[in-house]
């Protein structure tokens, strides 16, 4: 495959844009370097780069693109919004309509507020939880990503009873010391953290089904215990559903798992491909937010008609009968095909899959937490990623990310992908 135009654009980008990319995960750093491919257009399950190469897309823009690229219903909604003016700085009917839709789908959202990114949504839930409880500290789980606000760019200390340290330059030690990080799926570690810090904890931040070290489901009973123990300690439970809301069913992972948090942060899919974030939860907690309460949060672009229209249109598509069954069926075909090819070429892999989202880990051990994902083979993944890219199959350039299917992928796309995976594994087995 020829990547000349991407190479030239990347060179130019590096002169003007820091690192040549506007989000670090788009660089190929996670796969040992290389030239990120510049895309030009997308339609359905495919996107096309500036050299005219076609790819089957499993990146899904890191999650938002679940109905495929340029879905006509969403495109029409965005066009109509643009024709009527993209921003007024006043409330609109669309915001009411979309808020009602979200509340109907996810009953724990008694009140919501729209923002512009997942980062903003999570950051605000933490502020509101602190306002409500009058406490400062939060607990999060190792390897989970919650956006780039200071408070969540904190690395684990040496154990569940130790405070965190900054995970990014520019995050102060004082901020890091407000965060305790424990391993996911380890209830004993969670109890230990609460024993030390329970009466200072404002909230626990949870990806109820993890998407950020691959797809990892909670062990039976884990999240219920987290809920119960946190409430006993006087803290709140915040679900970060930025990836999971509307990914596995029409609703959140909380509907899927049958557990309700006090607050939820969302983003990605609910914007139908335009910038969005939203948070919401129990009415007594949400009433802490300005203008009703003392916790401040605002946004010039928040609830803008284009994002609202795209989000409403996207949920209208997802509400159609059989959508998630279809994603599950395609996901299952893909999983089976990849496993078969791995067996044929004697490659050790594990696949974690839920419906239309899966992760292929190069390891022979089941992955249930960050440590497991970290210990999977990154070099093999990098070779796999590049072998697939060269056959027109586009994954996220990191061993920690998921493959996301869309409603537009077909059985034929899956078959083409499995054939490419077979060839990639053949190459890997010769390394
Ligand atoms: N939370 C989770 C679980 C995420 O996966 C992400 C982004 N990948 C975020 C928050 C941040 O969202 P955004 O990139 O829209 O700021």
Describe this structure in words.
- This protein is α/β, with parallel strands linked by helices.
- 37% of the residues lie in helices and 15% in strands.
- It has a domain at 72-318: 3-Layer(aba) Sandwich (Aspartate Aminotransferase, domain 2).
- It is built from 14 helices and 16 strands.
- The strands form four sheets. It has a seven-stranded mixed sheet with strand order 4-12-11-10-9-5-8, sandwiched between helices. A four-stranded mixed sheet has the order 1-2-3-15.
- It is globular.
- The two termini are 21 Å apart.
- The relative contact order is 0.16.
- The mean pLDDT is 97.
- 4'-deoxy-4'-aminopyridoxal-5'-phosphate is lined by residues 62, 117-119, 122, 145-147, 207, 211-212, 240, 242-243, 267.
Q: What is the beta-strand fraction?
A: 15-25%
- Secondary structure tally, helices: 14
> What's the rounded overall pLDDT mean?
97
Strand order of the largest sheet: 4-12-11-10-9-5-8
Low-confidence regions: none
- Amount of helix: 25-40%
| Main sheet overview | 7 strands, mixed
Modified residues (N6-(pyridoxal phosphate)lysine): 268
Cofactor: pyridoxal 5'-phosphate
Pfam families: Aminotran_3
Protein name: Glutamate-1-semialdehyde 2,1-aminomutase
């Amino acid at each position: 495959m020829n990547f000349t135009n991407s190479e030239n654009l990347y060179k130019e980008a590096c002169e003007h844009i820091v690192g040549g990319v506007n989000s670090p995960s788009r660089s190929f750093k996670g796969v040992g370097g290389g030239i990120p491919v510049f895309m030009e257009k997308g339609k359905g399950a495919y996107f096309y780069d500036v050299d005219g190469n076609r790819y089957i897309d499993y990146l899904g823009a890191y999650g938002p693109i679940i109905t495929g690229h340029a879905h006509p219903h969403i495109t029409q909604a965005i066009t109509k919004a643009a024709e009527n003016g993209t921003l007024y700085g006043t409330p609109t009917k669309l915001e009411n309509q979309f808020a009602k839709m979200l509340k109907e789908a996810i009953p724990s959202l008694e009140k919501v507020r729209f923002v512009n990114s997942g980062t903003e949504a999570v950051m605000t839930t933490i502020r509101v939880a602190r306002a409500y409880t009058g406490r400062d500290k939060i607990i999060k789980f190792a390897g989970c990503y919650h956006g780039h606000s200071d408070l969540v760019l904190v690395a684990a200390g040496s154990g569940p009873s130790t405070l965190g340290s900054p995970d990014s330059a520019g995050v102060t030690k004082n901020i890091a010391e407000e965060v305790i990080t424990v391993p996911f799926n380890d209830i004993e570690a969670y109890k230990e953290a609460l024993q030390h810090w329970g009466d200072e904890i404002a909230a626990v931040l949870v990806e109820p089904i993890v998407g950020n070290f691959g797809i990892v489901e909670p062990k039976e009973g884990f999240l219920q215990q987290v809920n119960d123990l946190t409430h006993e300690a006087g803290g709140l439970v915040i679900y970060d559903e930025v990836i999971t809301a509307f990914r596995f069913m029409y609703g959140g992972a909380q509907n899927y798992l049958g557990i309700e948090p006090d607050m939820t942060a969302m983003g990605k899919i609910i914007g139908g491909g335009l910038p969005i974030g939203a948070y919401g939860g129990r009415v007594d907690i949400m009433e802490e937010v300005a203008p009703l309460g003392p916790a401040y949060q605002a946004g010039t672009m928040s609830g803008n008609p284009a994002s609202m229209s795209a989000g409403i249109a996207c949920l209208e598509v997802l509400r159609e009968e059989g959508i998630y069954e279809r994603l599950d069926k395609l996901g299952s075909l893909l999983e089976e095909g990849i496993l078969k090819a791995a067996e044929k070429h004697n490659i050790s892999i594990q696949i974690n899959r839920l419906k239309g989202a899966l992760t292929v880990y190069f390891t022979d051990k089941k992955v249930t937490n960050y440590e497991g994902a970290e210990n999977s083979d990154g070099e093999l993944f990098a070779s796999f990623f590049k072998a697939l890219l060269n056959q027109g199959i586009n994954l996220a350039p990191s061993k920690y990310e998921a493959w996301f299917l869309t409603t537009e992928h077909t059985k034929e796309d899956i078959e083409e992908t499995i054939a490419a995976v077979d060839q990639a594994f053949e190459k890997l087995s010769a390394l």
